[in-house]
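Researcher: Re-running this chain for the archive, since the previous output was lost when a drive failed. Same request as before.
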Amino acid sequence: MELANEPIFQWISQFAYSPGTVYLVIVGMMLLSAVGLPIPEELTLISVGILAFVGKNPDVFPPPYAGAPVVNVHYAAIIAFVAVVFSDTLIYTIGRVFGRKLLYHPRVHKMFPPHLMKRVEEWTHKYGMYACGIFRFTPGIRFPGHLACGMMHFPLWKFLLIDGIAAAISVPTQIYLLAHYGEPILKKLREFKIVLLVVLVLVAVYFLVKKLRQRSAEKNA
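Model: Regenerated structure tokens:
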């Protein structure tokens, strides 16, 4: 397995045999992500899936000692699911308790300008209980979306039902897919990374040439 020779996997494999720490990190990262910090929860889920994949292949990623505990994919999926739903509900509760005055808090106002919150509220009015699921599948507006559901006193049981269903679909799936089919998926991600890098370079060159032409035109004028 050629992935085992890459430095990033040699470094990350050490955590695959510290399941207790990984489970605590899952909860902590989900809470930080829920309160609006720029830590995509997808990054945490992918990392946990990779660790479970490493733990399932001790012949490729040797454990520090015989019988070392590994990250259990089932435990990781359950903990991640519970942490995600709990975090979403925490934000919902904050919105419900403090109401619209939260929108005037400097931090919230800076992170989520009025036009974004207005769009979130419009979606909540338009889609009703299904808005919870839309927010869960839409990175970037999860925090304001769950906050809006609370501010608008969306019924808690409906929020838990829709958010729970959406989380059950999206959260464990990412962990299980990487844990069971890690090698081909990671190879594709690596190929995608190379393609993305090439595209970004081309875009940067395009804008650089465009900027130079504009300056040249202004100078000639």
